Amino acid sequence: MKNHFLSRFDARNIWKTTIYFVIAVLLITISFIREYYKGDGLGFLMFVIGFVLFFYAMLHPWGKVSFYFILIVIFIILFTLLLSVGIGILTKMQLGKDLGGAIGWSFAFVCFTAIIAGIIGIFTFAKGWQRLPYMGAALSLLAVPIWLITCILPYPNLKSFLLVSNWILMCIQLFIAILFFSIGYINKIESRITKVSLLIAAIVLIIISMGLWGFLATAMDTVHEKGFSLWKLITRICAIDEIIVAFISLYALLQIPKPNKV
Q1: Pair 163, 94: CB distance under 8 Å
Q2: pLDDT, tens digit, for every residue of 111-159?
């Protein structure tokens, strides 16, 4: 079993992995010495780059796209738990406003660095056409925690249809991410089902982005509360993300090679 496990490593990646780990540990250590959590800009940059390298190096020996995708899923779940449960636990621990906030934000940024590392890993190890659906899946998943924030933030005047709409959009986003990942994993690039799936995904994403840019943002203006300016910004960011993923889907559709005629 041990030999089988070790045989799955790509020996050519071992030295690169070691270098990445060493650089990552050095950057993370220096970021703590500079006390990045107190607002040191350079220290914070080292913290982010260090953890991106750390998570990237953690899966680098295998060079498997699916592993990086799983990494993204795991840390999206952890980020969800942080928002729904973790903040409450930190509050009950009475660590003090500064320390509790520093721990919460640090963990949140660690989650985002893992997601970024996963996207980099997908782009690095996916081959040719296969990169496109994997990137679409990763970017679709990236919008899920953003939608989750809008569902969890406590706005007492929030209209129920907006809240329900956000949950529905989050479920659609998850479905599209699974669809893109399935296309990349199966990799039947000459299949009609693949072409139809990419086209449907692009159309749905364009419709969602137009709806986000128009209807939801306008509806939020009807609720007079300062917090909704942040909500409106989040909606715009998600709309841009949907457009990017839609273009990836269309570009992937155009890149599918035509079958050779016998």
Answers
A1: no
A2: 889 988 988 888 888 777 777 888 788 888 877 777 776 666 555 455 5
Q: How far apart are CA 213 and CA 203, in angstroms?
A: 16
Q: At what angle do helices 41-59 and 97-125 cross, to 10 degrees?
A: 50
Distance, CA of 58 to CA of 52 (rounded, Å):
10
Cβ–Cβ under 8 Å, residues 137 and 177: yes
Distance CA 194, CA 203 (A): 14
93-126 residues labelled b (16+ CB within 10 A) or e (exposed): eeeeeeebebebeebbbbbbbbbbbbbbbbeebb
CA 98 to chain centre: 27
The predicted-structure confidence for 6-33, as pLDDT tens digits, reads as follows: 555 556 668 888 899 999 999 999 988 8
d(CA 189, CA 151): 37
In whole angstroms, give the CA distance from residue 165 to residue 32: 41
